[in-house]
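Friendly challenge for the regulars: who can give me the C-alpha cells for this chain first? No prize, just bragging rights.
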Amino acid sequence: MFAWITGLLQGGGALAIAALMLLENVFPPIPSELIMPLAGFNAARGGTSLWLAVLAGGIGSTLGAWFWFALARAYGPDRLRRLVERHGRWLTLTPSELERAQGWFARHGAAAVFFGRFLPTIRTLISVPAGLARMPTGRFLAYTALGSFIWSGSLALAGYWLEGGYEAVSTWINPVSTAVVVAIVAFYVWRVIRWHPDA
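First reply, four minutes later:
Bragging rights claimed.
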C-alpha cells in the first residue's frame, strides 16, 4: 500500500492528491492520515511542491465534503429518511442514527463542521446534517475549507519534516496501511450484517 500510494502521488502529482482526498471524503478507502504525510514525503523528495500538495489536499477534501452536503441539501430530510428506511442496511445507517446526527448538528452547528474535519469518519458524515439543516453554502464551504487546509497542511508538514525517517518506517507503514483499508471494509460488512432498522 505504501509503495502504491507513493507511486501514485509521484506519477499523478497534485491531481492525484486532490483525487485521493476527494475520494477519502466521499467513501473513505484510504485515510487522509496516510495520503497527506506521503504527499509531504514526496514533496521533500523533490516531487510536487509542499504548498501545492497542501493546496491540492485541501481542495480535494473540501470538494468531497461538499458532495455530501449538496446531496443532502437537495434531497431534504423527508426524502433522506425514506431512503434510509428503504436502503439503510447498505448505507449502514438507521433512521434513529440519522435523527441523532441531525440533533448533534443542531446543537453544535458551524463548530461541528470545522472540528469535524479533524476526525476520521466524522469528516464525511458531518456534511449530511449540515446539508439537511440547509446551512448556507458559503458558510459551510468556509468552515470546511478552513478545517481541511489546516488538517491537510499539518499532515503534509509532518511527512515533509520526517522525510529522512520515512524510509526506516516504510516497512511497517505498508502493512499498517493495508490493515486500515481491510478494517474499513470489514467494519462495513459487519455493519451490513448487524444492521437493524430500530438500532
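The helical segments are 2-26, 32-44, 50-91, 95-116, 122-125, 127-132, 137-161, 163-194. The mean pLDDT is 83. Your move, everyone else.
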